[in-house]
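As a representative case, we now present a protein record of this kind.
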Amino acid sequence: MTPLLTADVFGWTVRPVRWRRARALLVVVAAIAVLSLHVAFDPPVECSDAVPCGPDWLNAVLFGLVAALPVVAFVSLPVTAWLAAGFFTADAIWQVAHPGLASPAWLTGVDAGLTVLAFVTARLAPPGLGTAAEMWAATTSHRRPPKPGHFPRYGLGWRLLAVPLLLGACVVAVLALVEQSGADDRLAAAERVTAEVTGHPDEYTLEVRLPGRASPVRITVGAAGEHPVGAHVAVLVADDGLYQLVSEPYDTSGWLSLAVLGAGLAAACLARARERSVAARALFATEQPATEVYVWALGGRVAVYATDARPGEPALVEFFALSRHGSDDIRPGILFGVPAQRHWCAVAVDGELLVPRGPARSGRFAPAYGGPAPDPDLDDPGTVPDAARLPLRPEEILALRPEDVAADPETVHTHRHNRFSGYAVVLASSWPFLIVLWRLLPVLPYWGAVAVTAPVTAIACLSGWRLLLRPRVAWNGAGLSVVGSIGARLLVWSDVHAVRADRHGAVTIETDHHGAGLVVTARGEHALLPRFLSGDERTGLQLSGALRLAAERAAARARERVRDVVSLPPAPVAPPAPALLYLTWAAETLLYALLLAGLFDK
């Protein structure tokens, strides 16, 4: 059986959760845009005594479907696609039934486009793990996992959530229909009279004087402003105290929208439960990559390590098993499945099959690979060393830039953010504050607006300069100079305790055993900005790898007592801001002042 090595999983493109949600977000934005277009361009509905605005159940279904789209999209895209199709069909039927209130033809085409977009996004396959993972899956051994004796009911939590949603939707729909039926019977037996409007207690209430009554009565309406004081309106009056405008009869159809929303969420939960069950059963129904690994299993927690894992290195993946395993040490086992986040895996260890409760997650949450290994930099030689201090693997060195791998200790390497992306962030960072000020402040004279916008844009430019635009790190074979987010230092390599990087691109250069040091930002592994905006900027892993490689070579030269004539890189003196940054600040200040000066009406 093929052993699983660290090099096998190196270079896999594991997308974060936000990339999986991008398709749902696209549907949400499209649904909100379609709803906004309907509000803006649909003919208005006018209520009158001749054509009253009675209950419209189909219209309530329409509102429920379009309200469910943004919510259901984050639970199940297939159900979202069918909801969009239902919205388009119901809208077409409603327009045929109400030709005088039909939407423009182009807006109906937009509804159809939303349906097509929803089905396309639902059918799009999620991004794969890259060519390295495909090559590994094609060359490794495959075997069908042992079938568990008791197959669990996956997706039970989603089903339990769907039950109250579905029951609630049914109860709301039934109560709305029963209440509307009773109200219709009361209105049918009511007396129609003409009343005079005497006041507007609030925007949804009319105060009217009925014939033969000394005290006025109050009636709830859709918009009180449509009935001015002194106007005469037709009112239905029942003996049991019912007062209702003839043009606006009692209407409970709006509750049906809530019922449709609940039913859509219930359907999405059931679909999510089915997807989870199908994915779990597929793990045991077909042949899977079978590899030798090391396993740490305690209770229901299972961590998987490569067979060449070194003490201090993190686990590849981690999942929770249905059965509990009593061992508290790392043992050899067999992994069935792909060791990547959001993939389903099972492990056989000590003759026992550990069936997963759900898909695997990142191994960074699991304990590091253990085992005593002497480390001269640690007080206790038996303590597990820090992974950030381990030598780089060959595959990690190959992932670095060629110029960073160059062995010449005299070469000075420099890291800085891509200027284009830095200026883009500077320009965009002040917009939220200025929009808030535009909504809150009264219209200001132009130079008064300049006095308000100048400090806001100055803070944005200063922050962008300190964090993104100025050079951050320079290093060679002797040491490095660092301009961190806060502070700057000139260090020899023996002063650097560890260099760490997270998946967001933040690189921490630690100068003691307690984690203190300087933080330098780089491009994340899966940055939100497109690659062309970041240019050839190093990622956080590339920068930390280059620094660790330089530190390893410096330590090797020190052990061999090789005395290279190497001077430290230039001292970390922050250079002055360029003229372009000052021009950006001035242009932003003058242009944004137009916003506060009333160029755009509030």
Q: What stands out?
A: The longest strand covers residues 288-305.
